[in-house]
Amino acid sequence: MSIIVVGSINMDVVARTATHPMAGQTVLGNQLRFIAGGKGSNQAIAAARAGGDVRLVGKLGQDAFGKTLEAFLHQEALNLDDLTFSPNAPTGTAIIVVDEHGENTIVVIPGANHDLHPAHLSHLPIHPGDFVLAQFEIPLETIHALFTLARSRGANTVLNTAPAMPCSRELLEQVDYWVLNEVELALYGGETVPPHDHDALTALALRTRVQHAQTMVVTLGAEGVLCVPAESEQAVFIPAHRVQAVDTTGAGDCFVGAFVTALRQAFPLESALRFANAAAALSVQTEGASLSMPTRQAIEAFLHG
Ligand code: ATP
Ligand code: RIB
Fold this sequence. Notes:
Strand content: 25-35%
Distance between the termini: 31 Å
Low-confidence stretches: none
Bound molecules: adenosine-5'-triphosphate, alpha-D-ribofuranose
Number of domains: 1
Shape: globular
CATH superfamily: Ribokinase
Mean pLDDT: 96
Radius of gyration: 18 Å
CATH class: Alpha Beta
Order of helices and strands: EEEHEHEEEEEHEHEHHEEEHHH
Structural class: alpha/beta
Helix content: 25-40%
C-alpha cells in the first residue's frame, strides 16, 4: 500500500434548505439524504478514485449505520483490512445543512471515531516513500503516534487540520504537508479573520509554518489554492475553475485525497496542486461528500479535454 489514511468515517445526515436557520429559528427543508462521509473516508475515496493505492484505517459502530457504511466502503477500491468495529460506541454521524448556494454547516458527533487509539497502528505496513494522511476527527494522540511511526519508517506525512482545534507544536513538527483552509490558517496563525490578499496570506502561512521543511497548502474555496513550498518563501497560487457549485461538502476532502495521490505518483508540486484543484472543482458540481469524488479519467478529461 502506498497511501495510508487514518481517519473518521461518518454517516452524513444531509438536509437541503433554501437558507440556513439562525439560532432559535426553524426553516423548512426540501430533501433529506443519508450519505457516507467523514473526512478520513472521503479523503481515502478521493485518493483511490484519483488512482492511488489506498488503505483506510478507521472505526465504525456495531449499528445499522456501521453496516451500511461498511458495505458502501467495500464497493470502493480500498484496502479495508484495518476497518474495525467499536464494541460500545455508535458510528460517527454528521448533521449537515446545505443551502441553495451549496454552502454547508456541519455538526459532527464522533462516536466510534474517537475509539481509534495508538494501539491500532503499530502493525501498519508503512514503507519508505509512502504517504500517511490524517485529519482532526480522530484523537490527536493517535495522529501524533501515527506520524512518529511514519517518520521512523521514512514515509511522508500529510495533515489536514480540519476541523481546526488547538494542538501541540510537537504534532505539527511531524508534518511534511499541512493542508488547511483560510479560516483554519487564521486560527492557527493567531488572527481573528483570514487576510484577503495573497501577500498577506503568504505572510501568515510563513508565520504559521512550524519548520522550513514544511509545505503549506491553503485552500481558498471558490478562489483556488495558495501554496508555500517547503524551504521556500514564495507562494504559488492556482485559481479555482469557474463552475456551478451545487454542494461544496467534501470539496476540501476531495482536494486533499487527489493531492496525495498526485504526490505519491511523483507529480511535481505545482502539477499536484492543479490536479487536486481540478478534482475539487468537479466534486462541487455533485451532491454529497463521498458521492462527489471524481475518477482519474474524469479529472484528466476535465484538465486536458
Ligand atoms: P469543505 O469543508 O467544504 O470540504 P474546505 O473549506 O476544506 O471545504 P475549500 O477551501 O472550501 O475547502 O475548498 C477546497 C478546494 O475545492 C479549493 O481550493 C478549490 O480547489 C475547490 N473548490 C471549492 N469551492 C469551489 C467552487 N465553488 N468552485 C470551484 N472549485 C472550488
Ligand atoms: O468534510 C466533509 C465531512 O466533514 C463530511 O462528510 C462530514 O462527515 C464531516 O466529517
